[in-house]
Amino acid sequence: MTDCQSAASEPSPESVRRSLRALAEGSAPRGPSPDPASARHDPERLRAVVEDAERAVSCAAAASAFLLDGRLATLGDAVTTAERCGHEQVARRGRRARAILRDLDTAVSGRDSEIGPSGGGPEAEPSGGDPEAEPSGRGTDAVAIGTARL
């Protein structure tokens, strides 16, 4: 069995934390999540998740909806799977979108002291961790996203 076919791993602590927060706040999606085993490794699905995240970082309303729908964990899974399966361009784009969305989530929620760089725990990549990726969205980019369409 290859890495791309391995059994589903435990959810990350960040994913669990976000899911519990969404349930507590009443912002969890109403319907069941799609079966991750059925389409988890489909390159088109990975690309679609990353494209949704890229659209989200260009508009405050889209970014808010993306975060409130709990899709940051899905994006993280897509990035990890794309990296494992050798879809480097998709992984790179996803890492950039994830860093921007994490920074925005941290800025909006005011949880900066609770979590590490880029809005994640110890497993979070530091801003600029990927030399080929665009800037993470810290500073002026994050401010621009937060006020883009308000």
TrEMBL record:
Disordered: region residues: 1-45, 104-150
Biased composition range(s): Low complexity: 123-137
Pfam short name (any one): DUF7966
Domain of life of the source: Archaea
InterPro entries (alphabetical): DUF7966
Name the record gives this protein: Uncharacterized protein
Organism of origin: Halobellus limi
